[in-house]
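REVIEWER CHECKLIST
Item 1: Sequence provided? yes
Item 2: Single chain? yes
Item 3: Sequence as submitted:
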Amino acid sequence: MDKDDMLDENEALQPNPGDGSAHEDAPVITPLQGMYREWFLDYASYVILERAVPHINDGLKPVQRRILHAMKRLDDGRYNKVANIIGHTMQFHPHGDASIGDALVQLGQKDLLIDTQGNWGNIFTGDGSAAPRYIEARLTKFAQEVVFNPKTTEWKPSYDGRNKEPITLPVKFPLLLAQGVEGIAVGLASKILPHNIQELIDASIAHLKGEGFELYPDFPTGGMLDVSRYNDGLRGGQIKVRAKISKLDARTLVISDIPFSRNTTSLIESILKAVEKGKIKIRKIDDNTAQNVEIQVHLPAGASPDKTIDALYAFTDCELSLSPNACVIRDNKPCFIGVSEILRANTDHTVHLLTRELEIRRDELEEAWHYASLEKIFIENKIYQRIEECETFEAIIQTIDHGLEPFKPKLKREVTRDDIVRLTEIKIKRISRFDAKKADEYMAAIEEELEQVAYNLEHIIPYSIDYYKRLKKGYASKFPRKTELRSFESIEASKVVVKNEKLYINREEGFIGTSLRKDEYLCDCSDIDDLILFYKDGRYIITRVQEKAFVGKDIIHAAVFKRNDERTIYNVAYRDGKHGAAYVKRFAVTGITRDKEYNLTKGTEGSQILYFSANPNGEAEIVKVTLRPRARIRNLIFDFDMGELLVKGRGAQGNILSKHEVQKVVLKRKGESTLGGRKIWFEPETLRLNVDGRGTYLGEFHGDEQILVMTRDGQFYQTSFDLSNHYEDHILVIEKYRPDTVWSAVYYDAEQKFYYIKRFQVEPVRQAQRFIGDHPKSHLVRLTKVDYPRLEIKFGGEDKEREKEIVEVAEFIGVKGFKARGKRLTTYQVSKVNELEPLVQPEPSREEEQENGDDPEEGEGNDGQMSIFD
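Item 4: Structure as written out by the authors:
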């Protein structure tokens, strides 16, 4: 039966009014399809407009608006039980106490509109609040100032018609962007992330001034945020938010901020799941969270803390991707607009509300002036005496109106019957005590305020800017930015996953996998790794690690494949066809399609690999080549140096090794790397090393060479040039470590309470060492590595009249160990220490210039001098 037949059959079931067989009171049967079309659309519209999506004007969902309205009605300056607030809100909200209570707790936890008392739960741990009968709340001063004004509020009847509720509250602030919102309706959803209050006020002021602005989220849970794809909060945008992880020591990591939308419980669960799957190795986790987040992650012996940090970001909820979706109610329908447009609309609406408040105040002042003038005329001219002989109330009205007639031109509006009625209500006591001077002063004050109101209306934009500035001064200091804006680099999961599997191979049968425990062991791997397999006939493929997979026989090399690895070089000698010439080549495999077959030979049938080696650092060995004996061949055996070949693409043919038939090629002597050192850069935005030329060039590194890091709090340490290293954001100097560099440091010794200067060389250390003493209040003033530094000392306090003093540091103090206290700079009170241009400047060598990054071909570098100011 098709759809139309179903409709016809349903229509046939309905009684016919003209049919005598049907009773007139019989119920009308509505087809199911009709109910779905009409009722579901009504339901969807109701959910969108009245439950899930916020209104652009006040940024509130209906339940939030009703809660605030009920709290305003209850407000007497004291705390109210939440259970009482919920009960009063039910007069306006028809969906039960549970939904009201949950929405009230969420508002209270945002600490902006509601002042809370009692246990309201913890957004860090996910703990719920106490029962409504145990906790209390009241409106904050901020809410009182920016959310409510009954004179500018539009009202509508409540759901049962017994009360009035606001259509929207007259919010004079971008509250929607400050609090954020998340709601799921029928067919659409809204997800607007919270933003920083100070930045919102600054953006509103910028909009009013006609200037540009940018807005990025700020979360109450802190963390780090990459907004490179935020897309102004529109659909299709995406942000990445990370927990803040630092190293307490070599075997302990500390998570101090958590990603938005997660709590410590859910974060720890995601870490434990990653541990169960073998992605990360962790000894134990301690949750010490109280007022602030502190999750300690203890690592097993031998685990790399830097690699574990990357693995936490790659395999757990320590890094999340969030997709905003700015959907709001505007003109009584949902629309999708960016956060910049929302802020402009909110700011324009604030200007409108401020204008209405000024207009209402102007009308009130004019009314007050009008009545004060009537009262003065009525009393000073003794018009009240004329009504003594009037016998009716109507005669009284007419007499007073006639008495006011000469003065009406001086008034600002017509005199109404209500005005005259008010005059008749003046008590004799007030008439007898009337003071004309005070009345004039009162009217002058009204006129002065009217002038100010008129001026503000004419200059409404400056007036609105001043309003925002008052808000910022009064409230914004409580809301500093908690989420740090950073640029994240993509973490390749295969590089940081723990090697949780062992790889085996059965060469005879052609199987490879992690479950072949009785066969030949190849290496450790992870279950997300790729394998690269080379065959005797020159074919090679990339395939996934599996428990057991048939890959074919004649495998000459199998290993874990590292994508984009340009330092692993394959040295190959192959025969082209069955009797062709022998070729040699060196190449890297940086990235190919998984499970697609490639060939490192020319593809001629019968080709064969004569020699193969895989070299993790581009080593080039010397091989011994033996030719098959033939007439007129003098040298049957000769050596060939692979280092003479250039590294080319994997599809290159290679160089001819010999046109004669080669019997065998064997290794004669291992070689050294032909790739040279690695050129390393440091990117300040991500605090990571890279080889892509981003940031400050640190130099070319070989073998065990190290990087020196000196921090603003007077510490130094060395690290390897491993690209997985993590660095803290208080770095003062980061460069290639040179043990012969002499550093000059000026610091304030809090123990001796004097300024000291010292010259020292940095020694190799395993852990960070402090070079300005152990007193916690000692601080570094200036640090430089020029050969002959000069300092200018400015004095302050009682010695501010002393002339400046110049210190030649190299003559003032010799080079000592970094633990030495140094020499007292002066016994007088110091205001500032400046560094002057040295008189002697030795010429750097070309090699030093390149290592310091001064070669323009190597990119941006430092100038050999770093300073920290007072």
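Item 5: Key structural point noted by reviewer: DSSP finds 19 helices and 48 strands in the chain.
Item 6: Recommendation: ____
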